[in-house]
């Protein structure tokens, strides 16, 4: 019997060790990817537009071209060159099962940079996504791999750094790997909110509660609510000694000492990062630029490995006063606590929703006379009393179709169909785009036609319309035609009346020339393709806009 007990103990111990090993990340295996101390501008899990921040943004002291080095031994397994997103990026695969990513770079190390350049000229294409074998570009820990920059979707010089599970491609919080970043500052709480969960969190929305601070302890007055079903949300940031507003790593909600809800942001896959919109008060984020995180699970929020405990909805069974405690921790264990009390004062009557309610986990088609939207079962995180109507628009070849407004998120792509308000010729259809205006920006896509109906897919709500566009895209050079260029580059500015420049091709004296796209500009840095004292040159530029209109322009210069 004793031998059997010892065997059971040994098996349980082994299982525990295996489980612990799977949850432990190697400490001090990866080094700082810069040769200056790590100073964070953003951490893993910080709230961003339609996604979690998936790595660390490391400050480069407002400078570009700092040395970026390999965080550990491995090999360059991939590079990307793109207008937005990561800009220029390097992926290094390591033998311990992880891949590190370095983004917004200005330049790769010489041999890699030359390889990418040769591929670009071979493909006659600036944007690239290249996969490498382990023997092509092996690197050692601390080896120079690139120079830092401000390329892609970057608002200022910095290095974006990620650690991914090579097999699953999940992004893992890099701070779990033991980087030496001093931090003795607890999260800062600036707001508490409650929601009537008999309704959607979108309507009637958040109810604000004033918060008072004393050290790392926060309090509020007794919260009187008029619903027996409520949830909480918190407005808070982590400062981490460095001044920037970082995201919250760990949050717990307790009532009368019992855990009601817990979230922790350890890992997220890029396929799931849009679930952020179901973790925050999206309306407040878009309309008021406020980052408020739910301490509950919305019914359509399906991000795995994020939350534990119950769904966070508090069911008040009586009119007694109940104790609420919210505990926030950063990855170093610095802790803030908010304590308050809650009481059900009066249970107001619940109002039923209309027949246009879109619910999580249910597909829905909504139609007007000249438009139709098809939402998948994954479209919404919480119930939406969906409003859709048409209004006349003299600038468009359709009515403007209002799709509920931009303050409600959708998780995946929906299909939108709009009927033109007059019969269009095939030539006119071929120059028609669908514009979706969601307030802060517009998404403009070339229309696909089925009879008089245009169709496309979008993942934002707003106001949509059909626009006929026969205008030409245009390129403006930074020099006068025929001028002698003394600077080290050529810069062209692109403009369109509607949409974007979807295609750009430059030829120098009849041969393709590598221009990089920097936001709306196109930039060529002089190299051996156009050496000094090479005389007069002709630059032919062909651009195509979203509607498919093509413009060919010719410029001359000399060196």
From TrEMBL:
<feature type="domain" description="M23ase beta-sheet core">
    <location>
        <begin position="52"/>
        <end position="120"/>
    </location>
</feature>
<feature type="signal peptide">
    <location>
        <begin position="1"/>
        <end position="21"/>
    </location>
</feature>
<dbReference type="Pfam" id="PF01551">
    <property type="entry name" value="Peptidase_M23"/>
</dbReference>
<protein>
    <submittedName>
        <fullName>Peptidase family M23</fullName>
    </submittedName>
</protein>
<dbReference type="InterPro" id="IPR016047">
    <property type="entry name" value="M23ase_b-sheet_dom"/>
</dbReference>
<dbReference type="GO" id="GO:0004222">
    <property type="term" value="F:metalloendopeptidase activity"/>
</dbReference>
<dbReference type="InterPro" id="IPR011055">
    <property type="entry name" value="Dup_hybrid_motif"/>
</dbReference>
<feature type="domain" description="M23ase beta-sheet core">
    <location>
        <begin position="139"/>
        <end position="167"/>
    </location>
</feature>
<dbReference type="InterPro" id="IPR050570">
    <property type="entry name" value="Cell_wall_metabolism_enzyme"/>
</dbReference>
<keyword id="KW-0732">Signal</keyword>
């Amino acid at each position: 019997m004793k031998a059997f007990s010892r065997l059971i103990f040994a098996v349980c111990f082994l299982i525990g060790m295996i489980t612990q090993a799977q949850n432990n990340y190697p400490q001090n295996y990866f080094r700082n990817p810069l040769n200056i101390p790590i100073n964070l501008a953003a951490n893993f899990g910080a709230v961003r537009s339609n996604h979690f921040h998936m790595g660390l943004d490391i400050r480069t002291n407002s400078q570009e071209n700092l040395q970026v080095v390999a965080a550990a031994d491995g090999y360059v397994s991939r590079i990307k060159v793109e207008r937005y997103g990561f800009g220029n990026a390097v992926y290094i695969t390591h033998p311990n099962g992880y891949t590190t990513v370095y983004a917004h770079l200005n330049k790769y190390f010489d041999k890699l940079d030359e390889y990418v350049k040769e591929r670009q000229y071979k493909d006659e294409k600036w944007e690239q996504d290249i996969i490498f074998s382990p023997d092509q570009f092996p690197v050692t820990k601390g080896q120079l791999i690139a120079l830092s920059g401000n390329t892609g979707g970057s608002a200022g010089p910095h290095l974006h750094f990620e650690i991914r599970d090579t097999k699953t491609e999940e992004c893992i919080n890099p701070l779990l790997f033991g980087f030496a970043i001093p931090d003795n500052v607890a999260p800062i709480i600036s707001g508490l909110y409650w929601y009537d969960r008999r309704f959607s969190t979108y309507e009637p929305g958040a109810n604000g509660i004033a918060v008072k601070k004393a050290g790392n302890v926060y309090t509020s007055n007794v919260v009187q609510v008029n619903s027996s079903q409520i949830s909480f949300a918190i407005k808070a940031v982590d400062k981490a000694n460095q001044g920037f507003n970082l995201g919250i790593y760990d949050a717990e909600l307790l009532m009368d000492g019992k855990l009601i809800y817990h979230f922790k942001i350890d890992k997220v896959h890029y396929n799931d990062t849009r679930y952020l919109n179901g973790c925050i008060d999206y309306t407040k984020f878009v309309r008021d630029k406020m980052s408020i995180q739910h301490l509950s699970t919305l019914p359509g929020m399906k991000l795995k490995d994020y939350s534990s405990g119950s769904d966070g909805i508090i069911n008040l069974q009586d009119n007694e006063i109940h104790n609420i405690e919210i505990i926030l921790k950063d990855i170093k264990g610095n802790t803030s606590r908010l304590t308050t009390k809650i009481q059900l004062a009066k249970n107001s009557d619940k109002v039923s929703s209309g027949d246009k309610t879109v619910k999580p986990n249910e597909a829905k088609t909504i139609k007007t006379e000249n438009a139709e939207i098809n939402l998948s079962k994954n479209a919404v995180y919480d119930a939406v009393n969906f409003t859709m109507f048409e209004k006349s628009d003299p600038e468009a070849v359709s009515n403007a179709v209002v799709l509920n407004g931009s303050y409600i998120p959708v998780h995946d792509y929906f299909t939108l169909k709009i009927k033109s308000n007059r019969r269009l010729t095939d030539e006119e259809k071929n120059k028609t785009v669908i514009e979706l205006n969601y307030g802060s920006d517009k998404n403009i896509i070339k229309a696909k036609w089925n009879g008089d109906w245009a169709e496309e897919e979008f993942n934002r709500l707003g106001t949509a319309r059909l626009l006929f566009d026969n205008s030409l895209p245009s390129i403006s050079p930074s020099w006068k035609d025929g001028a002698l260029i003394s600077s080290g580059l050529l810069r062209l500015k692109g403009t369109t009346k509607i949409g974007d420049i979807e295609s750009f091709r430059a030829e120098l004296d009849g041969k393709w020339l590598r221009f990089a796209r920097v936001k709306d500009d196109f930039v060529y840095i002089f190299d051996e393709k156009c050496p000094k004292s090479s005389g007069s040159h002709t630059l032919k530029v062909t651009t195509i806009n979203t509607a498919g209109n093509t413009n060919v322009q010719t410029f001359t210069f000399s060196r």
